[in-house]
DNA sequence: ACTTCCATACTTCCATACTAGTCAGGATCG
DNA sequence: CGATCCTGACTAGTATGGAAGTATGGAAGT
């Protein structure tokens, strides 16, 4: 039964197989078509795409590295449950990294960048009411633009991996997703950068990234079987203070 | 000839082979026993350890993910040169993450942690004059202790990957390595945490991590063949300001 | 009814064979 | 002599065949 949820499109036999398997599986997991806790096997996936087990295995290894699969030797491979701590940790790391990126950008505001960002804000507003699913794509584009502008492409590669954990939650929370609010926060970031206010840019990013997972507790309450709460209840999100001392 | 530089110890056939190969190769690359630019092949490595290509291949994939190897399909696999930008990027990311960690720790100074850190400082001073190579291990322990204390074990996993790029440089620069100075900076971090001064802790970490690669230009000048300078000269390190605005 | 043992059907892991692409060097042709 | 093509020795990518370990269900014994 599992095959139907994964093999939506056929593979291109001309290009390398492993990356294709990887991409399809990753998408299926993040969008929760493969539910947390599901068992999958090399053989099963290989048959469903009519390839050998080898490229499937290598895709599994990559996904296990991202924390999306757990490969248990001689026992099986399962889609990991969403780890509450990992999600909060990913959020913490993104905040630390992107806050510094915003500070760099605010140091030397680039008019061309501001223009580009404001265009993106318009697009975000356009989909806000109609298609919240599309917002996730635009949101990714926004944050990526910031990283690229700061010449921190390497940082984005890291953030991408962190996002996978967070996005699983976001795809669960669609529907009741405060898109309008988030767009407003994006605007605050752009404003602060434009004005060259490093500390305002810093604070705006931190506020924004703390809001993104605001409904995590509700989602957890609604679908507890998707989550893997470590030991002893829901962890308290601990963060560095937004308002630091006199200097940063 | 390459085998001699890698197969120093035998493998344990009882435990999984892939992780062993991975660990050995990673160590060989970071310590520059495998020099940047060296070509290696799955077959060659497999023969040198008397295993099949398969586990070697999987180790290669992991190392390529960390940016230590470049696998060129149907052409070969080479040890990547040290990418100047990647090193600076890794440093930037560590600064952002560890600065936030220090802030968290300074919010609630833990006496037991302070005691532990001060003991580590003593050990660091002990090796400072005698064995600078050992310092790298103690340094790793120090930074890891900070991450763990802030309940950010996930963050450390990320930092470990970043460190691999930076450590390649550090193993080149041994000898003229300002260990005493770095220990002093460690002490400043501990002091700031103990006093609960979040902004001082923040600043101390940032200062420290900017110092670590202070001699990168000289190392690059000494061994240019180990480096891969992107396009157009040495990139200027761009960083967020240590002294931010009135708030952080 | 309950426990213990064992056959069986899985699973991932490793070994091996084969495919296809790349590159260098030499023969051949102009 | 010089350009071109071909051939063979590489490379990594993929397919497939066991090997070793694990879970499961039923039979046998208490």
Total number of domains of chain A:
2
CATH topology of the largest domain in chain A: Four Helix Bundle (Hemerythrin (Met), subunit A)
| Content-based structural category of chain A | mainly alpha
Number of helices of chain A: 11
Question: Strand content of the residues of chain A, in percent?
Answer: 5-15%
Tell me the major beta sheet of chain A.
Answer: 3 strands, antiparallel
Element pattern of chain A in H and E = HHEHHEEEHHHHHHHE
Architecture of the largest domain in chain A, according to CATH?
Up-down Bundle
CATH class of the largest domain in chain A: Mainly Alpha
Q: C-alpha Rg of chain A, in Å?
A: 20 Å
Distance between the termini of chain A: 54 Å
CATH-assigned homologous superfamily of the largest domain in chain A: GntR ligand-binding domain-like
Low-pLDDT residue intervals, each spanning 5 or more residues of chain A: none
Strand order of the largest sheet of chain A: 1-3-2
Largest interface: A-B, 45 and 45 residues
Measured as a percent range, the helix fraction of chain A is 55-70%
The tally of strands of chain A reads 5
What is the chains' assembly state? homodimer
Mean pLDDT of chain A: 88
Write down the overall geometry of chain A.
globular
């Amino acid at each position: 039964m599992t095959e139907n949820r994964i093999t939506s499109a056929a593979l291109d036999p001309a290009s390398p197989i492993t990356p294709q398997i990887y991409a399809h599986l990753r998408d299926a997991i993040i969008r929760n078509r493969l539910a947390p806790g599901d068992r999958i096997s090399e053989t099963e996936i290989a048959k469903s795409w009519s390839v050998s087990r080898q490229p499937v295995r290598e895709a599994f290894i990559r996904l296990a590295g991202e924390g999306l699969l757990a490969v248990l030797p001689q026992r099986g491979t399962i889609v990991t449950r969403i780890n509450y701590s990992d999600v909060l940790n990913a959020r913490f790391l993104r905040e630390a990294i992107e806050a510094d990126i915003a500070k760099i950008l605010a140091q030397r505001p680039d008019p061309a960048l501001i223009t580009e960002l404001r265009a993106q804000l318009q697009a975000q507003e356009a989909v806000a009411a109609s298609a919240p699913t599309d917002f996730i794509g635009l949101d990714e584009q926004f944050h990526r633009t910031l990283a690229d502008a700061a010449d921190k492409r390497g940082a984005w590669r890291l953030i991408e991996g962190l996002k996978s954990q967070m996005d699983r939650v976001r795809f669960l929370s669609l529907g009741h997703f405060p898109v309008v609010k988030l767009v407003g926060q994006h605007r605050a970031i752009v404003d602060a950068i434009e004005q060259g206010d490093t500390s305002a840019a810093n604070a705006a990013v931190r506020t924004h990234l703390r809001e993104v997972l605001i409904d995590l507790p509700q989602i957890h309450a609604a679908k507890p079987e998707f989550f893997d709460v470590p030991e002893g209840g829901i962890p308290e999100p601990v963060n560095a203070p937004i308002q630091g001392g006199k200097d940063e």
